[in-house]
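> example.struct
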């Protein structure tokens, strides 16, 4: 299975964080899965690192180096990914609004590239996209 990782999954994978579930670890370590990260993950991480230096201690460069060393595949942003934003519909039944543009672009990348998008974010399944893999 081809799997695009959400930013927090990448960060937790990098630090072997206990918040990663057994299901997540099984997916991440399964040799049959092909794992991807996006330039969007790096962009999001770098912005948070710059804006919140006392709370966010991993830069985009550090995360990118981890991804390279872990043999993850990088997917770059294409115009088609941005165009797919118009296809996303967020459920009115969601408990809270979802405002993260990075998540929306990552979903669109996974959707456009026929990948699964692995996330821990409880709001993302409210997009009702088949590519969202909650762990």
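> example.seq
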């Amino acid at each position: 299975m081809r799997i695009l990782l959400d930013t927090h999954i990448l960060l937790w994978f990098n630090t072997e964080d206990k918040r990663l579930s057994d299901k997540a670890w099984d997916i991440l370590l399964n040799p049959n899965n092909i794992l991807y990260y996006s330039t969007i993950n790096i962009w999001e991480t770098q912005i948070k690192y710059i804006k919140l230096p006392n709370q966010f201690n991993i830069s985009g460069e550090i995360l990118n180096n981890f991804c390279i060393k872990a043999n993850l595949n990088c997917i770059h942003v294409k115009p088609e990914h941005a165009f797919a934003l118009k296809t996303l519909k967020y459920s009115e039944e969601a408990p809270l609004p979802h405002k993260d543009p990075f998540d929306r672009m990552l979903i669109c990348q996974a959707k456009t590239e026929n990948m699964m998008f692995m996330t821990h974010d409880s709001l993302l399944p409210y997009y009702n996209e088949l590519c969202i893999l909650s762990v």
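> remarks
The chain has a mean pLDDT of 96.
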